[in-house]
Amino acid sequence: MTDRKEFLRQTALFNAIGAAFQRALIYSDGKDDGLKDQLKRDLEGYLRRIETQYQQNVSSEKHLRTIAGVAKGMSDKHGHILKNGRFRVGIAQKAVNIYLKLLWCYGWIPEPPHCPIDSIVLAEIGDRRTKWTKMDDIEDYRDAIERIQAHIQRTGPKMSLSKWELYVWNNRRKQGVQQDIGADR
Question: What pTM was computed for the model?
Fold first, then answer.
């Protein structure tokens, strides 16, 4: 592996884990930083391992099993430092989906079957009640994916989950930049 490719992979891992943990309050109080660092290294290992599965197209069902497996594996290994002993499905999906999104954008894997679910995506479909950081059941995640798909079908443009989320994310960023520019005048 070239140094440039490893740099990009490390950047994707850093961004995926950072985004998943950002507002999630995943740790129980007073936990040692060394234990937190080990959890992050283990999650990084999970993400690196699943990367090989996504070298070809993966079904939605297999993707659901992958996310559930990451949540369970991390809970089993690190429950002693996690809030309520759980690595929630919402956190797992965000890390997995952002990592895959970045690898797809790099051109390293085919398009992932799902998109990262976060507050921006949920707001875009008009859902202000669901909190992705609190999601802890794979069926709740499946329901959110189905609601996003239904929204795309109703409102268009007709595209896959991954392409739609990229479109939403890019447009939100552009609007934010335009608002920031206008505020300086």
Answer: 0.91
